[in-house]
Design goal:
This protein has 328 residues and is of the alpha/beta class. It contains 10 helices and 14 strands. Bound molecules: nicotinamide-adenine-dinucleotide and galactose-uridine-5'-diphosphate. Homodimer.
């Protein structure tokens, strides 16, 4: 099979690329390397350095099919950043997706898998764990932009029969267990890599955003889903969308508080994590835990990395081998 992966040089996308290659598929990555890394692309995979904001360049890449499926990861993806730059986030994420969807329709792509997010469920009125049909109430412009794309994909299916699978990831985490890829955002804003770096003395004390949330220990709770399990979910989804479009929440169903993440990093690294309480970060919901039971039922998907220490061990391994990320 032959697949096109936008954002395949980034954190989550690069792990899907590895999973597709491990299964013997041909892969082309469309990426402008704005946050991704050339070194994250394995041998045998072609990089088309294209900006999805450029419709004509996107069309020239997509015309080079046929594709058995397209995976769309490329986006701006920071909740806090989107609270400071709302219009930019909404414009960027929707325009890049519109260009890709238009090119897919023009060039007879039949299936697209889209990186959606738990940030769709940012509002206060919801139960936990969060089922697929929970009330959608984005708590940030980032989440709103992803909702707009989901709705666009709905109409692309209704009118053009472009089938889509929207995977609403909870917190993507971990690194390839074989050490072939990892997380290298610049600047890094995600909790697990920042906590490991604070433990290793590579950064000053971790700022813990919010200690007065309505949770047992006052810090936010997140559901960390390993990128290798996420990659498996993407591949399983392809069979589901031959004739219909689907949307699934994807997570382990287990939430860990930010303070529990700190304790886990201390166990795994053997170092104390220096941290200090800081104000809440705008746009952060108190608790995001997935009910992924329909994904499990429909596809047979089962996450292999359900223990936070094991997830963090894979990150620690990659960060120890790559203290300067992909620059090494
Ligand atoms: N990391 C998470 O916890 C998480 C959670 C939920 C959803 N998501 C979604 O998953 C996707 C991937 O997230 P990530 O953490 O791997 O991000 P990332 O920044 O590591 O990867 C994004 C990739 O897209 C590329 N890109 C960005 N704009 C582009 C453009 N205009 N044209 C071509 N390429 C472009 C970047 O260079 C990068 O390689 C995003 O859509 C994000 O919203 C991530
Ligand atoms: O220095 C830091 C960084 C993070 N946090 C806290 O750690 C938790 C997790 O934050 P991350 O930045 O690691 O992840 P987010 O939950 O903000 O966001 C991630 O998951 C979301 C869905 O849940 C989105 O899809 C988004 O793309 C993705 O980055 C939050 O409570 C945050 O406030 C800190 O306390 N200090």
């Amino acid at each position: 099979m032959r697949y096109l992966v936008t954002g395949g040089a980034g954190f989550v996308g690069s792990h899907l690329v590895l999973a597709l290659r491990d299964r013997g598929h041909e892969v082309v990555v469309l990426d402008n390397l704005s946050t991704g890394h050339h070194q994250a692309i394995p041998d045998g995979v072609t990089l088309r350095q294209v900006d999805l904001m450029d419709l004509s360049a996107t069309q020239k890449c997509v015309v080079d099919g046929p594709w058995d499926g397209v995976f769309h990861f490329a986006a701006l993806s920071l909740v806090g950043d989107s609270m400071r730059n709302p219009l930019h986030y909404i414009h960027y994420n929707t325009q890049t997706a519109l260009n890709l969807i238009q090119a897919c329709i023009e060039h007879n792509v039949r299936k697209i898998v889209f990186s959606s997010t738990a940030a769709l469920f940012g509002g206060p009125e919801r139960s936990t764990p969060i089922p697929d049909d929970a009330l959608i109430q984005p708590g940030s412009p980032y989440g709103e932009s992803k909702l707009m794309i989901e709705r666009t994909l709905y109409w692309a299916d209704q009118i053009h029969q472009l089938r889509s699978g929207c995977l609403r990831y909870f917190n993507a985490a971990g690194s390839d267990p074989q050490g072939r890829a990892g997380e290298d955002h610049r600047p890094e804003t995600h909790l697990i890599p920042l906590t490991i770096d604070a433990a290793l003395g590579r950064r000053p004390a971790l700022q813990l955003f919010g200690t007065d949330y309505p949770t047992a220990d006052g810090s936010c709770i997140r559901d960390y889903i390993h990128v290798t399990d996420l990659a498996d979910a993407h591949i399983r989804l392809l069979d589901q969308i031959d004739n219909r479009s689907v949307r699934y929440n994807v997570g382990t169903g287990h939430g860990y508080s930010n303070l529990e993440v700190i304790r886990s990093v201390e166990r795994v690294t053997g170092h104390t994590v220096p941290w200090e309480a800081a104000p809440r970060r705008a746009g952060d919901p108190a608790m995001l835990v997935a009910d992924a039971s329909t994904l499990r039922r429909d596809t047979g998907w089962t996450p292999q990395f359900t223990d936070l220490d094991v997830i963090i061990e894979t990150v620690f391994k990659w960060r120890s081998a790559h203290p300067h990320g992909y620059s090494d």
